[in-house]
Structures are given as structure tokens and as C-alpha cells.
Amino acid sequence: MIRLERVLAPVDGSPSSINAVKYATNLVAPWKATLYLLHVWHPLPMSIGGDQAETLRREHEAEAMALLDKCRTMIEPCSIPVERLARPGRAEYVILDIQQEYDCDLIVMGSRGLTPLQGFFLGSVAVKVLHGATCPVLVTRSLRDKYLVGSCTTPQGPDAS
Questions:
Q1: Nearest CA among 76, 80, 137 for reference residue 104
Q2: What is the per-residue pLDDT for 64?
Q3: Which of 20, 76, 103, 127 has its CA 20 to 30 A from that of 33?
Q4: Greatest extent of the chain over all pairs of C-alpha atoms, in Å
Q5: If you average pLDDT over every residue of the chain, what do you get?
Q6: Using one digit for the tens of pLDDT, what is the confidence trace for 63-98?
Q7: pLDDT of the residue at 43
Q8: What span, in angstroms and rounded, lies between the C-alpha atoms of 129 and 7?
Q9: What b/e sequence results for 42-52 when a residue is b if at least 16 CB atoms lie within 10 Å of its CB, and e otherwise?
């Protein structure tokens, strides 16, 4: 039997990634698996150094942790263990490194839905993760409400909007 113990959910702040976190949370809640929320930011250019680089690094990390805190607050009603991770680098490489480092059983991530032409020129993090991961990858895209309503991350009852 497959057992989920550690699930990685990369978050970039887009509605697609937020919905993927909601989906992942509800998927792993019965297992009480640890959900690793990961935000990756672009590394600083090599031309920036010294105190300025350290200040910018701290700003990026603070912004990342604020986003991850927002996600953690959103999923608190689910009562699952959550770890927040923030790293600089190219998203696909950092996601794959974290998956290996934490021995994740599943990666759940959103896709912004690039057209094939956009994906060719811009690259797709989801596609690169799909090709490089050593665990299953679940990619969500434009989730319908039926997959999110009634979840522990969605307000329920007569006051819900």
C-alpha cells in the first residue's frame, strides 16, 4: 500500500499554486503527512555584492516567508504538519533538490497553463519537474470549484461565500 508521509507543494503566489496547495492539503490530510511548502526566488545577479546583496537576500526571504505564512494560515484548519522552506535558485532545480533532500513521496504543483509555444520559449517548471522527479508529480491546472469546495481549507456553512 502506498503511504504518503512527506509531500512537497511549491508555491509561487499564483492562483494556480494556491489552489494546488489546497488540493494537496486535502489529499494528505487523512494521512497526517507533512506538507512542505516551498517558495523559490530568483538568485541575485553576480554584479550585486556586499551589504546590498545581503539586504536584498533578507528582503527576498522575508517576502517568501510572508507568502508561506499566508498559505500555512489558510491550511491551519486541516491540522496537518507543515514545514516552510524558502530558497534562491531556478525553481525546477530547487524543487527537485528539495524533493531529494526531504525524501518526498509526492510533489503537488500548479501549472499556469502556458501554451505549447510559450512553454517552448519560456520553459515550463512543471514539465521540467515531471521529467526530473524521482517521485510521483501531480500537476493541477484551473481546478474547478468542486475540487476545492467542502475542503478543510474552504469556509463551509451558510456564511461561506
A1: 137
A2: 95
A3: 127
A4: 55
A5: 84
A6: 999 999 999 999 999 899 999 999 999 999 999 999
A7: 80
A8: 14
A9: eeeeeeeeeee
Q: Tell me whether residue 83 is exposed, middle or buried, using C-beta atoms within 10 angstroms of its C-beta: 0 to 12, 13 to 18, 19 or more.
A: middle
> Residue 18 — φ and ψ, nearest 5°?
-65, -45
Q: Using CA atoms, how far apart are residues 124 and 85, in angstroms rounded to an integer?
A: 21
Q: Output the nine-digit C-alpha cell for 160.
A: 461561506
Question: Rounded CA gap, 125 and 94, in Å?
Answer: 11
d(CA 52, CA 142): 39
SS3 for the chain is CCCCCEEEEECCCCHHHHHHHHHHHHHHHHHCCEEEEEEEECCCCCCCCHHHHHHHHHHHHHHHHHHHHHHHHHHHHHCCCEEEEEEECCHHHHHHHHHHHCCCCEEEEECCCCCHHHHHHHCCHHHHHHHHCCCCEEEECCCCHHHCCCCCCCCCCCCCC
Separation between Cα atoms, residue 27 and residue 24, nearest integer Å: 5
Amino acid (1-letter code) at residue 55: T
Q: At what angle do helices 125-132 and 91-101 cross, to 10 degrees?
A: 30
